[in-house]
Amino acid sequence: MRLIYIDESGDHGADSRNGDYPLFVLVACSFESSDYVRHFLPSMIEFKLRHWGHELAVLHEREIRRPQGDFSFLLNASKRVAFLEELGELVRLSHAHVNAVAWDKRDPSRRFSYGACLSHLLEELTFGEAGGPPPPVILESRGRHEDDRTVKALCDLSLEKFGAIRFVDKKANVAGLQLADLCARPIGMRILRPDSTNRAYAECVRPLMHISHNGVRADERIRLI
Question: N or C: where does the chain have the smaller number of CB atoms within 10 Å of the terminal CB?
């Protein structure tokens, strides 16, 4: 059985344009359930226990990048270096498969919604051999109204290969959603500045990018919409 976790980077509003980050990136991290339960969950809990002494902290890329809340200790340069090295290893060794779609808002003629971006991402997902129960799709909730709009946007998409679509609050501390959050911005920066050094992408996220049946890595075909 597979599990699918989806999170984002950037603003999905059609009329919002961030000059520093004019992208909306949606990422799916899929796992074999055995890898998730036996490997990734224990690894994430151990990581949190080392740094906080408890597992309650929610890994959030923006709060890590601009140290806030549980991550204020990262203002200490030496602690930040050690933390980021271990975090990169957690991502790189997660056993997840990563797929992504990106909406480049620098082209004003391209206008989408969150639901439309999600539809494109779900179309990208393949699971190899058939058989077994369809995987659930787990997304971070953006409020009941927005979640209902998302479900309606998927009505025209064939969803037979998926199980239930579930929305959960960030405070639920779901490990798979946190991984998707950590992967999304490095992918966006790869698109935005392809010639710049991007260790988070090159060393941590890229090894997880899904390999298609013809052997082409997804980083060579991240779907731009």
Answer: N
Q: Residues 154-213: pLDDT tens digits? A: 877 777 789 899 999 999 999 999 999 999 999 999 999 999 999 999 999 999 997 665
How far is 46 from 51, CA to CA, in rounded Å? 9
Sorted by where each starts, the structural domains of the chain and their CATH numbers stand as 2-224 (3.30.420.10)
CA geometry: angle 139, 211, 186, nearest 5 deg = 55
Contact between 79 and 67 (Cβ < 8 Å) = no
Contact 125, 30 (CB under 8 A): yes
Rg (CA), the chain: 17
Give the SS3 label for residue 49: helix
